[in-house]
C-alpha cells in the first residue's frame, strides 16, 4: 500500500516539476526575444522576421494597360 502511494507521489512530482521547467523555459525565451520557430513563409514576414519584397513598378502605376485611352467613354 505504501509503495503504491509512493509511486503515485513520485510520478506526480515528476510531472509537475517537468511542467514547471517547460513553462519557465518558454516564458524566459519569449521575454528575451527568442522564438523557437524560424519559419520563412508569409507568417514570418507578418511577424517581422524579414523585410517584405518591394512592389514592382507596374503595381503602383495609375494607368490601366488594357485601356487604349483614358478620354474614351
Automatic annotation (TrEMBL):
Region (Disordered), start-end ranges: 52-73
Segments of skewed composition (Acidic residues): 59-73
Domain of life: Bacteria
Transmembrane residue ranges: 6-26
Official protein name in the record: Secreted protein
Keywords noted in UniProt: Membrane, Transmembrane, Transmembrane helix
